[in-house]
Design brief:
Elements (H helix, E strand, L loop, with lengths): L6 E5 L3 H12 L2 E8 L3 E7 L4 E6 L25 E4 L3 H10 L5 E6 L2 E7 L5 E6 L2
Parallel strand pairs: 1-4, 5-8
Antiparallel strand pairs: 2-3, 3-4, 6-7, 7-8
Length: about 130
């Protein structure tokens, strides 16, 4: 059996706020939440098969190790975007706009259509539909 992606772990400023956003946009649910590495806090939000782990470093790290996002495409090991497949691209785009984010870089090409947006932490999401 080939390997499959289970989760992606990203550092965010507010795991609860980001989890609520992803629940509203993609219909996901919280699978688990609790204490995490280095006395931080993590929420796992996604489907029954895969999820995004939203990590927040402890308050002691604030101002020390937490840096604002830079150009991930120019950073070796940088997270460039998280792609989410949806059935109704237009409906999710309307939700993204209603949340106050700006969809951009729309592209229609085989095999699907897509757009991108950045959340409050600067994390880029690709929303794609193959329908």
């Amino acid at each position: 059996m080939p390997g499959r992606l289970e989760h992606v772990n990203v550092t965010v400023s507010d795991p609860r706020a980001t989890a609520r956003l992803l629940q509203r946009l993609f219909g996901w649910h919280i699978r688990w939440e609790g204490p995490a590495k280095h006395e931080g806090y993590t929420i796992h939000v996604g489907s029954d098969d895969n999820y995004v782990a939203l990590y927040r470093a402890p308050a002691a790290y604030e101002g020390q190790g937490q840096r604002p996002p830079g150009d991930s495409y120019a950073t070796r090991g940088g997270l460039n975007h998280i792609a989410v497949v949806v059935d109704d691209l237009e409906a999710v785009e309307a939700k993204v706009r209603a949340e106050g984010f700006t969809p951009e870089s729309h592209a229609d090409y085989e095999p699907g259509r897509r757009f991108y947006f950045r959340d409050a932490d600067g994390i880029e999401f690709e929303v794609v539909s193959y329908a």
